[in-house]
Amino acid sequence: MSEFKLTTVEEFEAATERLLETGAKVGADAWQFRVKNQTPHCKFGEQGICCRICAMGPCRITPKAPRGVCGCDAHGIVGRNFLKFTAGGAATHSDHGREICHTLYCAKEGGNYQVKDPEKLLRIAKEWGVETEGKDIYDLAHEMAELGLMEYGKPFGYQRFLDRMPAGQKEKLIENEIAPRAIDREVASSLHMTHMGCSSLPEALVRQSLRSGLSDGWGGSMMGTEFSDVLFGTPKPIETEANLGVMNLLPLPALDGGRLVFLIIEAIRKKPINREIEGRIHFAGLMALMVLMVVVMYNDILKIF
Question: How far, in Å, CA of 83 to CA of 77, rounded?
Fold first, then answer.
């Protein structure tokens, strides 16, 4: 097998530029184009010193007006905005984990969802102190799903997966008041603290950002990952000799190889090909590749179920 080689940032940028050029030819939109349409950006927004939480805003911090209507300064406003972003991300990722727990609860023998990795389910159950001896694997799955769902709203204690941390790390988080409690509690506390008139102390806002983020990383997202493996099987590495770089050079429209074919034709004819015609060909090739991807994905899904 050939030696593994990391793709450089420059190679990524060059590939992105080629993709954008192809997309422009077929009329595809991209965030890079939309960013240009939004310039110039609001400098207050870029610095995070614009606050629109209450009905008396938005407030913009300047040397002339160093505090908002509520009295919050630049540090507090930046802290509020950062915490709101963190809470939104934690809620989004963790809610995916919640749905995975609900799906695990619905799993049954011969059903639409089944336990594909019972060994991992047994390992997590033992890790959480759940008795497994003599239990049907689906009864155990339902019990674990309920325990997982309780991690979102339990009234006391910290996230179970914190016990996976190196010795002493969990205790340090608790000591510094950033150990995540119930996931929903951390999100609710974050929204509470960022509401008007509730908290403007930047240190407290950043501390809650850490706790909210950890509730996702060591709570919702981790449950989503672990229980997804239980349901669909733990991914295993497969060695292959396939070279994706070589595949990209195949003479197919929408790939670099297809573009190379057009360049060769232009060199032979000594005049450029009509860009509209080339764009239509690339678009047709792109659609064909998308159809192929759907077919391959469909076959993979059939193998799973």
Answer: 10
Contact 115, 138 (CB under 8 A): yes
pLDDT in tens, 140-174: 999 999 999 999 999 999 999 999 999 999 999 99
**304 burial level (CB within 10 Å; 0-12, 13-18, 19+):** exposed
Check if the beta carbon of residue 87 is closer than 8 Å to that of residue 206.
no
Q: Which of 97, 94, 219, 104 is nearest to 163 (CA)?
A: 219
- Taking the C-alpha atoms of residue 267 and residue 249, their distance in angstroms, rounded to an integer, is 18
Query: Which burial class, exposed, middle or buried, applies to 278 when counting CB atoms under 10 A from its CB (0-12, 13-18, 19+)?
Result: buried
User: Which burial class, exposed, middle or buried, applies to 19 when counting CB atoms under 10 A from its CB (0-12, 13-18, 19+)?
Assistant: middle
Which two structure tokens, joined as six digits, stand for 295? Answer: 């077919």
Give every CB contact of residue 235 below 8 A, 6+ residues apart in sequence: 229
- Residue of 52, 75, 222 whose CA lies nearest to 152: 222
Give the other-Cβ count within 10 Å of 147's Cβ.
18
3-state secondary structure of 50: strand
Give helix then strand counts, H and E, for the chain.
13, 2
Tens-digit pLDDT profile for residues 201-252 = 999 999 999 999 999 999 999 999 999 999 999 887 766 555 556 666 777 7
